[in-house]
Specification:
Layout: H1 6-18, H2 21-28, H3 32-46, E1 51-53, E2 58-60, H4 62-90, E3 94-100, H5 102-109, H6 113-119, E4 123-129, E5 143-148, E6 156-163, E7 165-169, H7 171-177, E8 191-192, E9 202-207, E10 210-215, H8 225-233, E11 238-242, H9 243-252, E12 256-258, E13 263-265, E14 270-276, H10 284-296
Parallel strand pairs: 3-4, 3-5, 8-11
Antiparallel strand pairs: 1-2, 5-14, 6-14, 7-11, 7-12, 9-10, 9-13
Length: 304
């Protein structure tokens, strides 16, 4: 099958429907001679005369009648295929893969998924909780949430919420061990850090342009924010936590922010960005998730 003749078939149907080469040419912005060449190519390829031309009108040959009806069916099928593709694009459906850092996924994104699934019953969500960098194309990721101050070039995206860190403890712990008044006081406390490498125990602070760091110590460390929060709640020490993890317990008074006048700086701070690899032909399920997360964020935080 010579697929290059498909445009000529469409032009042939238009010529027959319009009744003349000139009328068909006016519909497309082409010239009557260009319309005539389309028909000539079809006739040469088929080895049959399709149109009998007179000075006043066009008349279909027997072969022309058959080709016209088949070409008409072809155009109708093409129209249905395009309409079908358009409707699929407009309906949020299929599986969406979302890559999220572990703490953000557990504390921020997971609680929002029930409403999303209820709102979009034809969308399935596959949540990938990974702290490592994941390549969107190589690992078939539709959308990625990343904590960064500057997203990777070449990606599309939008910021959703700020990510900040703090240190906190229970009132019971502070009553027993005292309330630190400056960062260096932390050397005399049990501090609960990330614990993935030695640098995690060196806490950095900033206040009015002045930076200060302190080497903390502690008998317990954990690379999971939920575990560190639980350790704080069990009075094991002063823990470093993302604000979104600690905010509920801060609001209830179960934990208290330590050194609130100092900014606790961390590599796990910045903006939470929602990123995707292409701005063209985006499936409706991706657009639905982008709009939904933008609607739900930023996550409300208690007054400090």
């Amino acid at each position: 099958m010579n697929l290059t003749l498909l445009p000529d078939l469409a032009t042939f149907v238009l010529i027959v429907d319009q009744g003349s080469f000139s009328a068909a040419a006016r519909m497309t912005g082409a010239t009557p001679s260009a319309m005539s060449r389309c028909v000539s190519r079809l006739e040469a390829a088929l080895g049959n005369k399709l149109l009998h031309r007179t000075t006043r009108k066009l008349r279909l040959s027997e072969s022309g009648h058959s080709v016209y009806h088949h070409a008409l069916s072809m155009l109708e099928a093409a129209k249905q295929a395009l309409n079908s593709g358009s409707s699929v694009q407009d309906i949020a459906q299929g599986t969406l893969t979302l890559s999220v850092p572990k703490a953000v996924g557990r504390s921020v994104i997971h609680p929002l998924m029930r409403e999303f699934l209820e709102r979009y019953p034809q969308v399935n969500v596959r949540l990938r909780l990974e702290d490592r960098y994941m390549d969107l194309i190589d690992e078939s990721i539709d959308l990625a949430l990343r904590i960064t101050r500057s997203p990777s070039p070449g990606l599309y995206g939008r910021p959703l919420m700020p990510i900040s860190h703090l240190i906190c403890a229970t009132p019971e712990y502070l009553k027993q061990h005292g309330l630190p008044e400056r960062p260096q006081d932390l050397r005399h406390h049990s501090c609960i850090s990330l614990g993935e490498n030695p640098a995690d125990a060196r806490w950095k602070f900033r206040k009015n342009g002045h930076a200060e760091s302190v080497q903390t110590r502690g008998r317990y460390a954990a690379n999971h924010t939920g575990v560190r929060l639980d350790a704080v709640l069990n009075h094991l020490g002063i823990g470093s936590l993302p604000l979104f993890t600690a905010q509920e317990k801060l609001a209830s008074g179960e934990v208290i922010q330590v050194l609130p006048e100092w900014e606790f700086t961390s590599t796990y701070s910045g903006e939470l960005w929602l990123l995707w690899s292409s701005g063209k032909h985006m499936p409706a399920r991706m657009r639905a998730m982008i709009d939904y997360l933008s609607e739900k964020m930023p996550v409300k935080v208690p007054d400090q």
